Amino acid sequence: MFEFIYNILDFLFDLVIKDIMFETYILTGLTGIIIGFAVINGVLGGVLALIWGERRLLGRFQQRTGPNRWGPQGILTSTADAVKVMFKEDIVPEEADKYIFNVAPLLLVIPVFIIFSVIPFGISLYAVDINVSALFILAITSISGLSIICAAWASANRIAIFSALRSVAMLISYEIPVGLSLVGILLICESMSVMDIVIYQKIPFILIQPVAAIVFFLGSLAEINRTPFDLTEAESELAAGYQNDYSGMKWGLFYLGEFAAAIAAATVFSTLFLGGPNGPFLPGIFWLTIKVVAVLFFIIWIRASWPRFRIDQVLNLAWKGLFELTLVNIIVTSIAVIIWTDADSNRLIYIGLANWIFAFPFVILIFKMLKTSNYQDTNKESMSYPIGSDTPKFMKEKS
Amino acid sequence: MIGFGLIKGLSVTFRNLFSPVFTVQYPDKRVGVFGLAKSRNLSILQLFKEDSKQFLYAVLGLATVKVKNEQFPRFRGNEFVWYDDRCTACASCAKYCPLGIIEIVTHASGENLQAGENYAIDKFDIGTGRCMFCGLCVEACPYDALHMGTDFERGNYHRSNLVLDKETLISQVKNPSSWFRPQFEEKEYNPWDSEISDYKEAGRHEKLSNEKIKQNWVNKRKFNG
């Protein structure tokens, strides 16, 4: 895409003026601005649609109608909300660290948009093709933790700090399984570029790497702070969490960042595991859109159905469950890759079969071991309680 | 079975996704093309011919239809129905009102004394702003001239507008509620479909004959015993 727009601009420039200074620099900059404008506005439109779709779908899941007043089927509701947020008063707490307080929302939003630079929207439709883009995605997503802890620290509010501590604990724990779950794919493709992975995916990797897909999906849910891992915004415990003291457009940026992160997570998952733009008949961008919408629907469906984890349960799941699963997945996949080295068409099928037979049973095994009733039966006294809470009163009285 | 609970939860919400909506939209509701055509008793083609603008709005999902929320016939609403010709200005309602919000001013008329028009009414004000709808005035009325109303959309910007004066009571649309008026229920009158503008139609509750009272008594004993 970059070369295509660059060539068009070059042609137009030649028509108007010839021989200007620094032509390549100007053209490169202009091309970047055009691509960035298109991608960022696409994501912003997607966020507005997602907010509307989520409210509407949650309504239907609970047998309500959801917002249906403003525009056809209420589709302009989120637009009206966005306009309203822009005109709201911007309150900064007196004890806040003003500079960090203002920078934190930007730190959350900008990395999310950067992720979309390496995503291929079609087979030859991408902004940049880095040869380590899978690693790049992992690196960029972990910035959101920094933003959250900045926001909480700067607003000088202990509820916000609690929320941010939970979020960072979760992010650090889930970064490791998410990173390791990609190793299987990288071993199969022998490349770290998302473009290569997409081209290699004749069969969607969710069928070849089921364990990695489960781990990656749960991990990305935890990293974008959505249900069932939305401890950072547990309303009953922490009010609004780390964005407690934010108002006006800064709060709006946090909201935007969270929903853009949901879209980014769905896009990354559908690129790496669902085949991305690969698909028959339709152009690649339509296939990618369909897959992203399906994944987002599943995320909203989960939000409507499942309850929230406790913080100790979340960390248990990360360290005692998903981490081991990724190790099993890496061992099985690497052995399979060594056995079937030659790149014939059946290689993927063999590796997939090996994964289903040898790696997938471990999912059931490990989750059976993680069952909470196992802990409760054995040692009731040393039951782990949420971080920051003392031993409950009734237990003290007993002993 | 591990993980079955998660799938069970998902299936419950998925069933809800395709089940009918409980929301009652008020005062108007959004309708599609089919809903609009159904509300006007037309087929879709007729709707397109007669009102193509509304048809287009309905296709875009912008068309609205007024919703009339029906209540039970005995619903005590925010409006009194008063029959001028039936009232003798005895002021029983004003005496029984625990809040004293009914204000009646009369003078001797000197004509039609036999027809119960001994007093001419100058003023008949009900300050509904402080009314608690206990209905004691309606129970007290010996001539069934005052009824509870059925309207409930009476929002106002000024308290003075909440006072129902004589002219309003005479000129308003009369949909009396069947609360404490068994004669309406015998006639199977529904205040949400029809109105009773004439005082003769409203009628009075006929006293039961001795036979019927006896029968009722026997029936009651039979059920209790």
Report on this structure.
The complex is a heterodimer of chains A (399) and B (225). Chain A is mostly helical. Chain A has two domains: 1-64; 88-370, no CATH class. Chain A contains 18 helices and no strands. The relative contact order of chain A is 0.11. The mean pLDDT of chain A is 83. With 225 residues, chain B is of the alpha+beta class. In chain B, 34% of the residues lie in helices and 13% in strands. The chains are: A mainly alpha (399), B alpha+beta (225). Chain A binds chain B through residues 57, 60-65, 68-69, 71-73, 301-302, 304-306, 364, 367-368, 371, and chain B through 2-3, 6, 9-10, 12-14, 16-17, 19-23, 25, 30, 60-62.
- Largest β sheet strand count, sense and barrel closure of chain B: 3 strands, antiparallel
Mean pLDDT of chain A: 83
Structural class of chain A, by secondary structure, is: mainly alpha
The radius of gyration over CA of chain A amounts to 23 Å
Number of strands of chain A: 0
